[in-house]
């Protein structure tokens, strides 16, 4: 069987599993859970029309009982999530490094399910809060399910899993008043930080743009912990896993993210749902960083320290495949809410390291599902079932689905000829890596874990000027929300060990004193891979608002929409209402959105075409002027052709307009504002506008 046939079989097997539990109610008769057909579900059974409801009304009791038990406990962390189906395709064989079956044959495909999430907030919190994002991937392989349970940040706050309950207790809403929701802007979190300096590196990432991604489709993923790859000769290498989005890594601004929480709290999940429905499938290349075991101590950081990354300049990321998400879920609860990930879900060819955070995760993820999903049989839920066959002597328990005939449920046995029986390693059985272990049982931490600041400084050094401004702004908001004055000062003093100039700027914004003594930087090094300024920049899937009223230039709109479509971008027409309008040539148009329910926050750029009548109406509309100002403030691309520039002149964008007399010959560009005056140059204008759109932001113009 070819690898393409294998993928088709596995993908169909997974979909068949899901299909077996699908219930299509369209056109069907209404029944109880016991399939009894019902004549009514609007009124309970009563003793007379105005009398009491009767206890014998089994339909009422079944319906209300089910409703009362519909909710299950939400995840303690990563409660708010969103998932999608897809597949992973291997670029090149990894047989030199691992015997994992799904990493052997170039071109082979493996079904996957991915769940993106926030860490701190509850299920009802907003998508765009400042937080770490989960990036968990389940591979349905021939050898069983394999999970990479990662985040969008390559490191973590703590070094040892025993401190995880303390971290989460500190970052969650404070227990006395359950305030604040889904934010680190409060005393208990920063109290934990200053008393646990190992958090310094992760806090830098959390205060950076990485903590407010533009989209799940524009977000990196990392396995966080150190694992091992094991090949057929039992040679092991240390490995870290990476997901790199083909749209690049891009973020929101703090002000933009906070406003989006109110404008559209479902912004991220809506974005990825719509992209998949429109065929703009999210794509992520899969990469590995590998280190030989005999190189374990060759670096100035400990490979097992989860608060440390492996700089890509030292250990390059080898790209080995690509994941494509091409199908939305059919039912959010059945799939996204019930999917169960665990880093202990591995396959032959992949094994663990002694990373102390990972060691705790191996237990914790399994343990939490027992409460959430009602016992040990949660793997029988369709979304969690492997495509590989399952045979063991596990029996009974809550929600058992499998029906096992016969009397044998133990091993060894003779009644069933020792079935099911163990499989030798050479035939695909899993064998733990035989690492040498020699030491005393101690509650202690390696001295190699004691450096808490050098990589935090590396991260700061690697940021562009705009990214550094955003980090300082984040500290001002987050630490500025802290009530305890002494705590604020301790934050300043702690981050002086990261970068003295950072501490000085933090102090100035939160009313604290500059650090008493400047601490020399522990490193002058930088890593270009850490800055989002060095990411892929493309106009693909970007959304552009085209502001219109009756009297707009039809030719201009038609040309811009064609140019956007050719670049893989999306143009949406926005007017003061959803009523039909017409171009100055009489062409009718029904707007896609209106200014009341839409806004610049939901777009990557804005374009105003010519047409004096429509521009005069827009100039009198406060929402239209605010639309331009919002886009300007958030450093987005703004374009106008012909009379459209008059709307820009009525806003804060006037300061960035080039001389329109010069725009007669060619489009003029100034810090992401593009204008042209003259239909003969419309095509070059559209091209210039799309080029500016691809840049994501124009930070020199941000204010």
UniProtKB/TrEMBL annotation:
Record keyword Membrane present: no
Annotated GO MF terms: catalase activity; heme binding; metal ion binding
Cofactor: heme
PANTHER family: CATALASE, CATALASE-B
Active site: 78, 151
Enzyme category, top tier: oxidoreductase
Catalysis performed (reactions): 2 H2O2 = O2 + 2 H2O
GO cellular component: cytosol
Domain Catalase core residue range list: 31-419
Species for this entry: Syntrophobotulus glycolicus (strain DSM 8271 / FlGlyR)
Pfam families from the UniProt entry: Catalase (PF00199), Catalase-rel (PF06628), Catalase_C (PF18011)
GO biological process, one term: response to oxidative stress
Compositional bias segments (type: Basic and acidic residues): 10-25
Similarity comment: Belongs to the catalase family. HPII subfamily.
Binding site for heme: 75, 115, 164, 361, 365, 372
Protein name: Catalase
Annotated function: Decomposes hydrogen peroxide into water and oxygen; serves to protect cells from the toxic effects of hydrogen peroxide.
Keyword Iron: yes
Start and end residues of each stretch annotated as Disordered: 1-34
Keyword set, alphabetical order: Heme, Hydrogen peroxide, Iron, Metal-binding, Oxidoreductase, Peroxidase
Top-level taxon of origin: Bacteria
E.C. number: 1.11.1.6
PROSITE patterns: CATALASE_1, CATALASE_2, CATALASE_3
